[in-house]
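Why do we care about 3D structure at all? Because function follows from shape, and shape follows, mostly, from sequence. That is the central idea of this module. The next example makes it concrete: a single protein chain, its amino acid sequence, and then its structure expressed as tokens.
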Amino acid sequence: MTRSTIVAYWALPHAQDELAYQYVIDALAEAQGGVRFTPHISLGSLETFDADVDEVVSALRGLMVRPTQIGRSYAFTKSLYVDIAQNDQLERARASLARRNGFRSTRSFAPHISLCYGPPVNEDALKPMIEALLRKPVRIDRVRAMEISLPVETHADVSTWSPIETFQI
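And the structure:
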């Protein structure tokens, strides 16, 4: 299979809000022998790095998102996740990326924070902590550009991801 590289742009939770998500992500990754990753909302991807993200950052200034429900799918990178309520600021940030040359997307924009890549193991032990994520809004205070090799089908694939740059909002 041919591999390619993209640059994904992520909206990141404020450090205090990130802690609860990171704890669940780390515990689920450890239980399955998987890879830990940073909690994020994927805004979109470009074929190459573009440091001019002022419009994206501006769209996200002061953003607080509301978790709505826990979701599951068969997609490796979206197997267990927290849905995020639709939000005009997220839509504007996504639209800013979508207008650029080299924009790539494999699915419609459905804001969420993934908790697990691949089928979760020992999820019931974390159920109270997972459900608690739904009760607290999440402040967004950074955008991160990540270099990602496609396709992403295994934990080994995720382990190759690397941050390029982080932009404060």
